[in-house]
Amino acid sequence: MTQAIRRWDHIELAFEAETAGNPFLDVSLEVTFVHGHRRLPVQGFYDGVNHDGAMPGGGVWRARCMPDALGDWRWETRSNLPALDGRSGTFVCEPPAAGVRGPVQVVDRYHFAYADGTPYHPVGTTCYVWNHQGDALEEQTLRTLADAPFNKMRMCVFPKRYLYSLNEPPCYPFVGEVSGTYDPALVRQRNVPPPDYWDFDQFNPAYFRRLERRILDLQALGIEADLILFHPYDHGAWGFDQMPREVNERVLRYLVARLAAFRNVWWSFANEFDLMRHLTTADWDHYFRLVQTLDPHQHLRSIHNCMSFYDHAKPWVTHCSIQHHDLTQVPRWLALYGKPVVVDECGYEGDIGQVWGSLSAEELLVRMWLGFTEGGYVGHGETYWNPEERLWWSKGGTLQGESVARIGFLREVIEAVPAPGLDPTGADGTGNRLVPEGNWNKVAAGHRGDDYFLFYFGMHQPRVRTFSLPEGRYRAERLDTWNMSVEPAGAGLAGTVDIALPARKHMAVRIMREG
Predict the structure, then answer these.
(1) What is the pLDDT of residue 429?
(2) What is the predicted pLDDT for the residue at 449?
(3) What is the DSSP letter of 196?
């Protein structure tokens, strides 16, 4: 009986074989998936010894593919290990399960959509090492996410040693064992040489199985896993930020082989890449091109900054991932790079001693509304201290802040914009459409042609605003972004009109063509 796989799910092939030497370095496996005249080469990976003991001394190799076209598929293997070479099989790709839309793609210079064409508007959160906390806390995080408005999660492949994140992970990515006591004084130092703990020639498959499990848990919740591949926050604890270049490359090959078949994966090459000062721009260019070449499904690719930007205009970058507090810059970045802009880090709602981690809920919400209204996307984060030092931004757990429900309202507003979404009014230097006073009286604004306009006033509290409408008739609504309410503000509007406002902050105006 022919195996059936639903579109955009993944098929996994498993092969057992005996081998000598290092299976991570000495054995190659490539599986070519064929659909009609199309050939999709996929790299296989070693997943450790077989768990049932059926083949003493043997191991398991796997290969995964995400079929994206309906109908009959076949596959065939090529390997330097005879037991893995020349294998073949078939399967059929059936229509996707209800609600499955495929991987997210860039559709134009401002917007994203799922593979089936449904617009996707990233409303993300940051939870760097939630997946390195052990099952109890990780499952609590998943329960929190199930009731939260987020559809993207920034998370690290490697563990992190930083403020409020000084614990050891449940296991480690390489064969080896931590020995000695970590010096907390190192948490403020960078580029510390790696300790001699690890055999960088041998991965620990159990570590990557844990990562896979959490990615698939997010997939079941409809959440994209924005995977941070490298980061500088190790400070001599494990040395994963200072690995030799050839080990970094081996990591990337292994991650692509294991994870690229999961539809909700994004590749974020680094968090604050410019703090990893031993790596050059040429290194990052090479890592981007390598993953672009290896990934058969071409998942989204980005890189995140601390102070200096990577050149997001380079062809292997699919979208901008930016850390910056000034969301009025979004139209400039859109014009400069010609790609969707996601401000993944604009600051965090919280109360810790760092400036970036002590924003009020109001301030975070204002920043998010500014960025979305200007045609970009902005991510959430939360850093409220608690005695267990389980801060959402680092370890996950539960959310305390007042912004979360209001971000849900923001998501509803943005998802109601006609497809594919808001264009940035002013990105071409023309200023705000419909506002006759000119740029000196500028407010955050976005539009969808002449059919839809959104204006956001933030901390301003006008009693009235004047708009000059294009030809036709329009209706308007007042949106209270803090109290999450919508009320009519006029119908059958034409020409130059005054729209009354309640003279309080957090207001927005939505204007839509009638008929």
Answers:
(1) 35
(2) 92
(3) T
